[in-house]
Amino acid sequence: MTFESRARGAVLDIHRAVEVMEMTTSTKEPRKIERFDRFRDRKHRNRRIGAILVAGVLVIAGIVVVSTNMVGKEQKPCTSENATKLTGTLTVKSFAFSPDCFSVASGSTISVVNEDPRGHNFTVEDTDVAVPLPPGETGEATAPAPGTYDFECTIHPGMEGTIIVT
Amino acid sequence: MAFLEGSRSVAEGSEPVAVGASETFEDFYVREYPAVVGLAYALSGSRSGAEDLAQEAFLVAHRDWDRIGRFAEPGVWVRRVVANLSVSTIRRRVVETKALARIALGLTPALPELSAEGVEFWRAVRSLPRRQAQAIALRYLEDMSVAEVARVLGTAEGTVRKQLFEGRKKVVRLLRLEEDEA
User: Fold this and answer.
1) For B67-86, how does the pLDDT look when each residue is reduced to its tens digit (9 = 90+)?
2) Chain A interface residues facing chain B, Cβ-Cβ under 8 Å?
3) Contact yes or no for B157/B147 (Cβ under 8 A)
4) What is the pTM for the complete model shown?
5) By three-state DSSP, how is residue B145 classified?
């Protein structure tokens, strides 16, 4: 048997199969268009459902990230026991203070270096300490009277920490 | 054959814009659908997914019918889409899984099984590099000329001739057929 005759048989097979398909679904033309319309509507619906699902997953992921961050913070309050003694500088990098829980002696100088390409500030609550930190620059503040203070960058919510002044 | 009726004038180089210029999508769909399903069936080998592959191709045409409908050969265009969809393994699997689920629910019938010889032939064709498989399916299913196959695949006629030659040679070897005289 040659390729040509084998191919002819195989092609006839396909044509017959399509004919049977047409007879079983419907040989009437309007029905066929209806089937296409249903397919199209299903496609569009699936796409909408897909978009809604993706949006839903993103929202849930966002909630999880935010809540784990909150839980993380609540679980370890900054006390004189776990505060690190600030020896070098306080660093601002990637929108965070490091360390964010430290102790210093009252009246000593706190150097804050901003390693971000964005401007920040070092503001200690309930004190006069408010040091602007342009990108790449270092600012200085004097540690206030003994006590526990929260500090933050007032430009960026979430950039915060605690100082134990001894 | 539907394809040939729709595009013969173009193949012969006359009235290139007349075909399809004022045709509605419905007419186009009704006329071309069977041939396009056949192409999808041969190239994907999927009894359950071939119709979805064909409808997918028409969906793309439908979405952009204002533009595609004015093409000289929307039939060529939809065949190119379905030929490419059908040889994409991932696309075929996705479509087939969905279709099988619908069949399980009794919503859609599958295409009928081919004869053992037909199954064997198309399986051999599908084992070829995809361009060769597409060229053979187009050439034989609708009795297209080399020029027509080249237009559907968007390649040069010489390339199609080479793909047909290579593809045929390999199928002959796979199925242990006699060599053709030419």
Assistant:
1) 888 877 889 999 999 999 98
2) 1-4, 6-22, 24-25, 29, 32-33, 35-36, 39-40, 43
3) yes
4) 0.59
5) coil
